[in-house]
Design brief:
Helix content: 55-70%
Order of helices and strands: HHHHHH
Strand content: under 5%
Radius of gyration: 17 Å
Shape: elongated
Number of strands: 0
Distance between the termini: 38 Å
Structural class: mainly alpha
């Protein structure tokens, strides 16, 4: 997936091949995700990466800091299910 993401970022003109290679080298050395390493190296901002990924996956990115989440809402989905599907309830519809 890292190589695919890297190639898409290059094709989109967001990073260069040199920047990709630097991030992949860091990934081999220290681990971590490609996107995080690109941010760490200063080759892309976190906001730009999130915007890009949300478009790629056809999902809307949100800033959780903008939400006041009622703890009762979190209990609506079992923790194991939330982890498995990487989901988080934010609000109850119609509330």
């Amino acid at each position: 997936m890292a190589a695919q993401l890297g190639q898409i970022l290059i094709t989109s003109g967001i990073i260069t091949e040199t920047q990709l290679n630097e991030a992949l080298t860091l990934q081999k050395k220290d681990g971590g995700r490609l996107g995080s390493n690109l941010v760490k190296l200063g080759h892309i901002t976190e906001d730009k990466l999130v915007t890009f990924l949300s478009k790629q996956y056809g999902m809307t990115a949100i800033d959780l800091a903008e939400y006041k989440i009622d703890p009762a809402i979190l209990k609506l989905i079992p923790a194991a299910m939330a982890k498995k599907y990487m989901i988080m309830p934010l609000m109850r519809a119609g509330a």
